[in-house]
Amino acid sequence: MNSSHATARKAPPHCQVDPLAELRRPDDPPWDVYLTGTVFLDIIFTGLDSAPVRGTESWARGMGSSPGGVANMATALARLGLRTSLAAAFGDDHYGEYCWDALETGEGIDLTPSRSIPGWHSPVTVSMAYDDERTMVSHGHEPPPAETAPDHPPHARAAVASLTPGVRAPWIEQAARRGTRIFADVGWDETGAWDLAGLADLEHCEAFLPNAQEAMRYTGTDNPRHAAHALTRHVPLAVVTLGAEGAYAVDGRTGETAEVPAIAVEALDPTGAGDVFVAGFVAGTLADWPLADRLAFAGLTAALSVQEFGGSLSAPGWSEIGAWWRTVPSLPDQDPTALKRYAFLDGLAPGERARPWPLRRAVPTIGFGRTT
Asked: Is pLDDT of 327 > 50?
């Protein structure tokens, strides 16, 4: 599975829109976004009436399998037209082969920095969605240290990093020194310290995108908007997601703020929605859109993703974005004033006559539907 040559510098195979088309120059970095992390196989159960009850068997009305983990972010970026390079360890089992093929062939993601590890099995997550919530069970082992992120990351316009309290990732500083713009998120601090000093690589980041609870805990505030302002003392741009309320952002370099409400949708599976939000914000930032437009676009892509299931393969492409923009004004109970927030899509989203490109979606089991 390991690629022996660099993938050609071109847009993903399914992408109809290049959001950076007007900005591209011959001497640009080969990749728009670089990221590294662990690829999981995700198995998602949907249509559960409630959380599983101890000692009973629950039947789900829906099931899907897809690449997960860092693949959620990589796929979302690629489907928005960004040339994406991923460094990850893959198991040398059927799960690993499936995930490699889905990302490289299906999504056009560069896997040159990635490796298939002999004798290492793919990590697996089982996710159960119910009542707009989810419960997950995962299993896996850490890959050998020498097989994770390369010592010298490829040159890219931007990189997405997941910060770990108390741990430095040398590649982040290396990339930042080459001019790569670092966008960072963070997971729940299992130590309970919630100390920004523990996020050592934050000093190399341009933007930090925690959720409301994470932002308030790290800043010791009781208001997520106050937390966003406090974070700009540590990073130039703070974006705090507010769940059903939307998102709030502060650019500490200019003092600009923006807040955009969430789009109300019926969620089938929230797996990967946070990654899709970050991908949408990265795309808008690299395209030099106004801050409010970036927030609105990120929220829209995340809202579209939860209407499909399957983590990485639920991410929308430009066909879905264009279809939403064409149809939403005719739906009942729409506020025309609120819809003006998305008027920037007029010059971007494919028109009705654009040839739709069918995106891969999650299927029940690996190899489902094969005839040979």
From this structure: yes
Q: What mean pLDDT is predicted for residues 96-120?
A: 94
Residue whose C-alpha is closest to residue 66's, from 370, 368, 372: 368
Q: What span, in angstroms and rounded, lies between the C-alpha atoms of 87 and 253?
A: 31
In angstroms, rounded to a whole number, what is the distance separating the alpha carbons of residues 256 and 41?
Answer: 40
Structure tokens at 288: 């030099």
DSSP state of 330: G
Q: Compute the average pLDDT of residues 46-52.
A: 85
Q: How many CB atoms lie within 10 A of CB 126?
A: 14
Tokens read off for 75: 């796929």
Q: Find the DSSP H helices in 220-272.
A: 224-231
Any idea how long the chain is? 372
At residue 345, what is the residue type? L
What is the helix (H) or strand (E) element at residue 90, kind and residue range?
strand 84-91
Residues 100 and 125: beta-carbon distance below 8 Å: no
At 19, is the pLDDT very low, low, confident or very high (cuts 50, 70, 90)? very high
